[in-house]
Amino acid sequence: MKMVNEPYFGSKSRRVVLERGLDDAPVPQETANRDGLAVTLDVSLTIGTRRARLIAWRDDDDDYVALAVGDVSGAQNVPVRAVEEELLLIEGSRSGLPAEILVAVPHVTAGLAIGGRRVVDCQVRVGGPIRDMLTMTEVASVVVAWCDTSAPAA
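Predicted structure:
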């Protein structure tokens, strides 16, 4: 069966294929900062009994942080969700999915406000520091919720 590399657009989510370019090999932390890339942290850690990877990125005056929980390398349709910055590690430890990527957003854009989710969705689709962090995890494709999935349907 042929894999379609076009983004999937659903009623509440979209699938985005993250293809690495030929020159996009994983970059060690020491090399990344010297070459002008904005990676400020890239560490492996254990959350509960699961392996995770914490990546931080600095772009101009903004900081971005992502936590990849489980083995996301080469995985298809890995959920990406925005969580409050202060709850990033707690939410990561609560994850029951085989693989998931959590992106930290400021408290003011989380919760009922959907600004953080919009930023995550936009950058994953169009490009930006969040997409660059996801590409560093070597995930093959991600699924991003673009509307509030907890709200009841009208």
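Summary: Residues 38-145 form a domain with the Rossmann fold fold (CATH 3.40.50).
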